[in-house]
Design a protein that fits this description.
Blueprint lengths: L9 H107 L4 H45 L5
Helix pairs in contact: 1-2
């Protein structure tokens, strides 16, 4: 068989096939390397984004937790202050009633002496009327005092309790 110029026979075909195979292998390796690098980049970017989102979520939860703790502390302080104001008011009201009882006892003793000194039925009626009038005035004064203290205490307590509620969360 005669060979054409430029042909070297089966060796050349094998060499060409080997060269083509090597080139194809290089292209496959290059494509695999590029794909692997893209995959690594994608995984790195996703990991960075996930870490950033997690950090932001943790920061937000931490800030919300701190805000909730502050509100709880303010509410507890307000409740404590309100309780103190109520106790003080209760003491003032108790003192008002004790003062009334003491004053009534003194006036009753004086009234009994006045009744014992009466010589006529008119004097007796006058002394009884005066005792009743004094008792009613003292009771009205005590009731006004208790009402004033109660109103003041309710305003103080209302202000102390509603103060934490006026704090606006972020």
């Amino acid at each position: 068989m005669a060979r054409r110029p430029g042909e070297n026979g089966p060796t050349t075909a094998i060499n060409q096939a080997a060269d083509e195979g090597a080139k194809m292998g290089e292209r496959t390796v290059d494509a695999a390397t590029t794909a692997a690098q893209a995959g690594v980049r994608s995984v790195s970017e996703t990991a960075a984004q996930t870490a950033g989102q997690a950090r932001r979520s943790i920061e937000q939860l931490s800030a919300e937790g701190e805000a909730a703790a502050r509100r709880s502390q303010q509410t507890l302080a307000a409740a404590t202050d309100a309780g103190g104001a109520m106790m003080q008011g209760a003491q003032e009201i108790s003192q008002a009633w004790m003062d009334l009882a003491q004053t009534r006892m003194q006036h009753m003793a004086e009234g009994m002496r006045a009744l014992a000194a009466c010589r006529t039925p008119a004097d007796l009626i006058k002394a009884q009327s005066q005792l009743l009038q004094e008792a009613m005035e003292q009771m009205a004064d005590t009731n006004r005092r208790v009402t004033d203290v109660s109103m003041r205490v309710m305003q103080e307590v209302s202000g102390k309790v509603s103060a934490p509620l006026k704090v606006k969360p972020r």
